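Hi R.,

Here's the chain you asked about this morning:
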Amino acid sequence: MANLNKVHLIGNLTRDPEIKYTAKGTAIAEIGLAINRKFSAESDNGIREETTFIDVTFWGKSAETLSTYAKKGGSLYIEGRLQLDSWDDKASGQKRTKLKVTGEAFQFLGSKTEDTQGQQREQRPAQRPAPDTDGDDLPY
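And here is the predicted structure, written out as tokens:
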């Protein structure tokens, strides 16, 4: 029987990445991703919106890159796989589980950058100078 465990997500970071290191020095970055969905709700004749919050873990070089460049509110595309974590709750003694995503690849979306006062602003591509159109070098 075939198996597939692949997740593709686009959303906004709910917080700055939290980076930790294993005893052997491998970086681990934990991020939170908020994913919005708009839909028609016939019951109240309007458009409704719901937000899903997903915890994502990245390892190694990806974790270090995210911790350096990703910021709260930034938009991110993530490829990964689902992973079920389970543990015994020390307070209640019950077995707990949590489904989360282990990130395998990501791409920054949007073009936000910070100015010198630390405020976010839109980054625009550099303007090219207008070509010299005095007519001397036109091919016709």
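One quick note: Confidence is low (pLDDT under 50) at residues 114-131.

Cheers,
M.
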